[in-house]
Amino acid sequence: MVHPIRAGTRFAGVGGEEMKPVAVFSAVVFLVIAIAHLVRVVLRVPVVAGGVAIPLWPSAVIAAALIVLAALLLREARR
Fold it and tell me: Do the Cβ atoms of 62 and 30 come closer than 8 Å?
């Protein structure tokens, strides 16, 4: 019989360290969104919402914040 995953369950990460799967999943999601924002900045993709052009600088700020959050989550996952 297979037991469901319980809260706080860990799995082996890089180097045999145990990691929390929810924190790792969240970090990956944050990194994917950060990459999308960075691609927007590098390729200068215009975004218009409700007839208002959204400048590029918020994407750069959001990408930086998401990268920091992902790093913090990965650090937490290793505890």
Answer: no
Per-residue pLDDT tens over the stretch 47-74: 999 999 999 999 999 999 999 999 999 9
Q: What is the mean pLDDT of the chain?
A: 87
Helix (H, G, I), strand (E, B) or coil at 11: strand
Number of separate domains in the chain: 1
Distance from chain centroid for Cα 16: 22
Alpha helices in the chain (DSSP H): 21-43, 57-77
Cβ pair 34, 63 in contact under 8 A: yes
- Examine residue 4 and state whether it is found in any structural domain, yes or no: no
What is the reported pTM?
0.75
